[in-house]
Amino acid sequence: MTPTTATAENTAPDAAPSRLETALSGTVAELAENCDEWLPRVRLDPQGRWYERLHHDGDHEIWLISWLPGQSTGLHDHGGSRGAFAVALGTLEERDLGAARHLSPGGSRSFGADYVHEVRNVSDAPAISVHAYSPPLSTMNRYDLVGGRLVRLVTEEAGQW
């Protein structure tokens, strides 16, 4: 695919979240806090982030992701889905087009349908996070930031991740 300049703007993550975003944020925060059921499933993969879908229905999906130091998503959106994620263990950095935020256990973020961000582990220890999206992800766009503008590099379809 030929890179294109993106025209979508970030939905301000610090603005008042929608009811859906609040519900997703509550879901991931509760799962991150109560890790007894899913912690034995976690794997650490030096080749890239490990992830597993914990739940999927027509309304939403929930993912568990582990991060070794230096692993990152790169700049991406969620193909029109709203979402939230919470850190269960370790520390992650979330960067959007305006700021970078460090999230420690219990820290969470929610975002709207047009939000572009990057999540990465900039610490020296592994991290684990829980993510929820509604509707379930069907596509994700990957971006580069060139001259202060987003350039879409590729669109990934569900099933590629």
Please, could you describe this protein's structure?
It is a single chain. With 161 residues, the protein is mostly beta strands. It has a single domain, classed as Jelly Rolls (Sandwich). It contains one helix and eleven strands. The protein has a five-stranded antiparallel beta sheet, with helices on one face. It has a three-stranded antiparallel beta sheet with strand order 1-11-10, with no helix packed on it. Strands 6-5-8 form a three-stranded antiparallel beta sheet, with no helix packed on it. The longest helix is centred in the first third of the chain and has 15 residues.
% residues in beta strands = 35-45%
N to C succession of SSEs? EHEEEEEEEEEE
Number of strands: 11
Helix content: under 10%
Mean pLDDT: 91
The major β-sheet equals:
5 strands, antiparallel
| CATH homologous superfamily classification | Jelly Rolls
Backbone structural class: mainly beta
Global Rg:
15 Å
> In order across it, which strands form the biggest sheet?
2-3-9-4-7
Low-confidence stretches: 1-12
- Structural domain tally: 1
Q: Number of DSSP helices?
A: 1
- Please identify the top-level CATH class: Mainly Beta
